[in-house]
Structure formats: C-alpha cells, structure tokens
C-alpha cells in the first residue's frame, strides 16, 4: 500500500504522543497495561486532567469493545483503523476474549516500528506464539494466527479492502471497527468514504469512534489553534462540530442506527468504584477544566444489525448483555 506523504508526519507523530500519555497514566496506576512499556519510552509527566481523559477514553472504548465480544461470544472480528501502538490485542488475549480475527491498520512508518518492537521484545512476541502459532513479520506487516498488523493509508479504501481480504478477513462475521482519535485527521470526504466502505462491505457491524466534539465553541477553537502551532491540522474538524454532525457521519452513509456520549458523561457512566479509586491517585486542582476538556471529546457508536443480534442495546449505563 502507498507510503505516507511528508504532510502526514505530524499525524504519524500523534501516535507517539498517545502512546506516551497512555504509558504515563498506566505508570500512575490509572489502569493496568503491562505491554505499553515495551512500545514507548517513559515520557514527561502529564497533568491529572490528561491522565483522567485517557482513563475515560481507554475504559469507555474498552467497555463497548468488551460488550461486542460478549454479545457475539467472540465469534466476530475487530478492525482497529489507525491503531498506532494500541495494546488491546494483548489485553483481550490475557482476558480470554480474543475474537476470531483482530486486524490493525496504520501508516507503514507506524506499523514497521510496532512490528520491530514486537519482534525484538519477548514480552510482546511470546504471547503471540503461545500454542505454537507462527509469527510472520515482514517490514510493517505481521501475521500470527488471529492477529494481523497491516500497513496502509485509510484514505485509500480500495487498497485497504484488498489488504484486509488478503489477510483473511471474513465479511460475513460480525465486525467491530474502532477508530480512536483517527477520523479527525481525514477530510470529511475521506472519512465518509471509509465509514461508507465499512457499512457497504460488512452486513453485521458496529463502529466505535472516539474523537473531538463541540469544536465550534471557544474552547474547541483554542484546541484547534494549539494543534496548528504543533503543525497538526485537524482536516476533519467540521464533522466534530457537534453531536449531530458526529452521528450523521454514520447515519448518512448506510449505518442503521447510532448513539453518542460526550466523555464527561462517559466518565460518569463508568463503574464508579473504579472512578473513585483513580480520583484518589492524583490531586486535581480544576474540576471545571477536566469537565470542559471531556465535554470536547466523545464516543460515537453506530450499528448495522439485520439479524437482530442486539447491537443497538450496547452502550453505557446499561448492563452488558451477557452479564
Ligand atoms: C492519535 S493517534 C491514535 C493511535 C491509537 N488509535 C491510540 O488511540 O492510541 C492517530 C493514529 O492514526 C493514524 N492515522 C491517521 N491517518 C491515517 C491514515 N490516513 N492512514 C493510516 N493511519 C492513519 C496515525 O498514524 C496514528 O497512528
């Protein structure tokens, strides 16, 4: 697949930032992830608001993912687009929740580094070969029983389709697409094309998207300006204008239904005993700042469920279907 252009370097660098923030939060005890330390060096100290934001993000996205896996009894696939250095595959393996296929796609500059770390660090590679599985790594591509890392450009859906097909994706299986802070880097046309491709090709599917929302207000505009000074252009920010634009992104291209919560609401919908635990980890000076920050991010989820699996029942604040 095509290599990233020079203009993509700032977008590629956002992965280092996300991985480093996740590592710091893990180090502080926000959640457990014994794998992230093997993918990124320790970074600078992050503010408590940032750590709580990452906590809400990983727990929120993780909750929808786990509900999907439980509902389908793991007879499903997960496709993480713009996966960066996510460690979800290892977590699911440790928790006995692996789907039939787990696929990740990112630019070659990102996947080749991830593959290199996996190849050279046994805590990452060992779990992949347990049970005698063969680990095949070539450049930025990895195949290993049910785990596939593919390099590609999400703006090219034809090539994305071809590389997932070659890797053995089964379009008849229920499939969950995850994009965590990714679609905002594509123009509205590019992300619509991607989201439409997913709807057109996978009859039973769910899409979970985490990113900015309410970006038209003052706080949102300041966020955009701050990122610009770091040469990071949010090409898709128009679709992050409000809840309606986020939802319509899916409903206008073939998704049957969709829902959305801002991260402040997600934060309050997470298991409150754990939220109380993390709130004791670090003193937070300005709750208003955390609230403003979290109200400018959201999780949107959309579904297509022609056989009535119950995908529309997944979400927050409701008991998960098999519990
Ligand atoms: C902010 S990082 C998030 C990484 C990961 N999803 C996480 O939450 O830790 C955004 C990721 O999207 C990837 N990305 C953005 N645009 C892409 C494109 N057109 N094709 C492939 N990957 C892309 C970047 O390379 C980067 O790894």
Automatic annotation (TrEMBL):
One of its GO terms (biological process) is methylation. It is an enzyme of class 2 (transferase). Transmembrane segments: none annotated. Keywords: Methyltransferase, S-adenosyl-L-methionine, Transferase. It catalyses: [phosphatase 2A protein]-C-terminal L-leucine + S-adenosyl-L-methionine = [phosphatase 2A protein]-C-terminal L-leucine methyl ester + S-adenosyl-L-homocysteine. S-adenosyl-L-methionine binds at residues 57, 82, 153-154, 180. GO terms for molecular function: protein C-terminal leucine carboxyl O-methyltransferase activity. Signal peptide: none annotated. Belongs to the methyltransferase superfamily. LCMT family. Methylates the carboxyl group of the C-terminal leucine residue of protein phosphatase 2A catalytic subunits to form alpha-leucine ester residues. This is Leucine carboxyl methyltransferase 1. It comes from Branchiostoma floridae (Florida lancelet).
